[in-house]
Amino acid sequence: MDFLTLLQVLDSSVRLAIPLLLACLAGLYSERAGIFDIGLEGKMLAAAFAAGAFAAVSGSVWVGLLAGIGASMILSAIHGIASITFRGNQLISGVAINMLAAGMTVLIAQDWFGQGGRTPSLLTEGRMSPITLPFAEMFQSIPLFGPTYKELISGHSLIVYVAFAFVPLTWWVLYRTRFGLRLRAVGENPASVDTAGVSVIRLRYTAVMICGVLCGVAGAYLATGLQAGFIKDMTAGRGFIALAALIFAKWRPWYALWACLLFGLLQALAVRFQSIEIGGVVIPVQLMEALPFILTVVILAGFVGRAIPPRAGGEPYVKER
Amino acid sequence: MAAPATPAPLALELRGISKAFGPVQANKDISISVRPGTIHGIIGENGAGKSTLMSILYGFYKADSGEIYIRGQKTSIPDSQAAIAAGIGMVFQHFKLVENFTVLENIILGAEDGALLRPSLAKARKELKQLATEYELNVDPDAMIEDLSVGHQQRVEILKALYRQAEILILDEPTGVLTPSEADQLFRILDRLRTEGKTIILITHKLREIMEYTDTVSVMRRGQMTATVKTAETTPEGLAELMVGRKVLLRVDKKPAQPGAEILKIQNLRVIDESGVERVKGIDLTVRAGEIVGIAGVAGNGQSELLEVLGGFQDATGSVQVNGQELPLTGAGSDGQARRAAGIAHVPEDRQKEGLIMEFAAWENSVFGYHHEPEYQNGILMDNKGILTKAADQMERFDVRPPHPHLAAKNFSGGNQQKIVVAREIERNPDVLLIGQPTRGVDIGAIEFIHQQIMNLRDQGKAILLVSVELEEVLSLADRVAVMFDGQIMGERQASETDEKELGLMMAGVSGAQKEAI
């Protein structure tokens, strides 16, 4: 593998990691507050559809982005009402959201656009345009650094940089602010927050809505950044991989970044090398494509160290007598 | 000394507080006055309404009627925030701490000074130092809560309240989880707080604490305040009678034991839990026929694991013999059913998780663990009618109230749930009875009954292994006491030849030999 191929693989790893990273951070906020969210997938899908549809109709990627965030937040609100207000089972609510999104997106898309459940292909202005960082051309002649800067660091859309910025931001919010302290506390022992005179319900809703915003951005990026429009089931399990990454990352922002980059790399390898020959044995493409999911299973089975989830996760808060 | 009119306003006054949950009247027209700078005890059985009353005071529930006055001011407390603002601090029985936060983080949680943590933490650190010297409340501000002893965790709860400028401190059953020496320390701190003018409300079911440490005491029974008296003018017997509504025998009627043959013999027993920590570190213990051996110790020193091994739901190494028969400690034949077949009956420590299925009816619960036995079968079906009849009879004899076998276990009070479990295990006529925390969360009336049942079983010549964190209970029931600390037995004493002081030292890890050196 020459240097340029390596750069290209890494470059596509980054792009493929972005929706995972955004969804993973979305899940982090929600789960750190004690609300398990397996509906990341559904929220991303709904956001991807809304972003694709509104970007196509309006011709503006920003309208699309807002529509995606809106759609995702509506589903988040449903999850919040079911699991916080009505103290329902968070897993069931999440499953319901995934099914709702899978069905409704295709149904509405078909009714609206009549293109077999997809949204019209987006033209340039409906898509997120890459940003060329300053000096990209100037540095090009510098060996190693020049191409790395141009291919890998520069030339991504705004969302990519925003997503990366969200990693330190999330760390800062969690560990350096009052909101973060309360958020972490409410996921560990909501009674401690409640007896301190802080509303558990308000905190948890805030977390769930932040989760909605980030999932919305992730979905919008899928439809208007990675691809040019919404197609049926385009999230393709990314919400679940993001969940696996979250567990792998032990619910921490920096680890989440590395976990998502790893999954992005696996996906990029599968895209780039349809078949790999190692010592005369040809590894079929199907195996390459299955790699992220195999890793997911390995992680969830607990082979990669013990991950302790937030202690109050999944349990609705009921004041005890 | 007949109640002089105090010039200072009352620290706290409740007038006619009532609260109903559906048809259950948890608090009925409760009035209470607490003078500042005193320790006021509230005593009553489980379900008497103490916790409800305190929850109203802390803004968890809204009273249906009645008024709250704080320092003479009528105050409404719609939520905990209002309670804190009114200067009320609460130390719950189950601590409300975030286990993987530091002490400092727990202290500022909800009382931060701004959106950023750094200044709040710095301020709290300074204030903590001051509180530590002022009240002798020393805790490492950077320690993780989960690394602290229970006693220190409780201090953090007290510090939390003081950091929020609490003037009235409510403690709900504060000594339930403490060693005797930790409890002594707590009361020293409370005494100090009282001298500094703080008002303390102590909720407990332990008569001894009320008698020793409070200035005044209010007794609650079935949602009502039956009396408020000066502690100096009352007796434990008088209080017990006010609590239960009838005369209660506070001491167990114990004849000298007649120990017979060795029934249960434990040698070099070791338990390693799932996370690889050695919980029981080589225990030797025997229990003879007609003898109660009590295991004293602070919760979490390996007693639970010992019971679990003997009860058949924890693997171990070493040797356990019953009537000379070696019991397998791992794999096949080491489960609960095999243990019951070997003549071991088990009243587990946590009756709600291990002793009963809370959603199931009392009659179903009355045969769990023995339901496969031929006498409960009717062909391939269960003999439900027969079981029901037996359960009804059992409940009658064990004084389970209400005696309704169709009622779900969760609808009985703690004491009556325990009677259902005790009845089930004792009725099987076992050779060995394991009994963990026999009277945890059980009211005084039921304690008397359960203790009597255990004593009767002993006098029938059974071997009984009792585990309890209530030192008083161990001392009054057991013939021989073994103290566990850090997975080991620190020593054995004849119950008649030791006292709480000596056992308390052993519970804190000071062995008999070391004690003599002191």
From TrEMBL, chain A:
One of its GO terms (molecular function) is transmembrane transporter activity. The keyword Membrane applies. The keyword Transmembrane helix applies. It holds the Pfam family BPD_transp_2. It comes from the Bacteria. It is found in: Cell membrane. This is Simple sugar transport system permease protein.
From TrEMBL, chain B:
GO terms for molecular function: ATP binding; ATP hydrolysis activity. PROSITE patterns: ABC_TRANSPORTER_1, ABC_TRANSPORTER_2. InterPro entries: AAA+_ATPase, ABC_carbohydrate_import_ATPase, ABC_transporter-like_ATP-bd, ABC_transporter-like_CS, P-loop_NTPase. The keyword Membrane applies. Keywords: ATP-binding, Cell membrane, Membrane, Nucleotide-binding, Repeat, Sugar transport, Translocase, Transport. GO terms for cellular component: plasma membrane. It comes from the Bacteria. It is found in: Cell membrane. Residues 12-247, 264-511 form the ABC transporter domain. Belongs to the ABC transporter superfamily. This is Nucleoside ABC transporter ATP-binding protein. It comes from Cognatishimia maritima. The lineage of its organism: Bacteria, Pseudomonadati, Pseudomonadota, Alphaproteobacteria, Rhodobacterales.
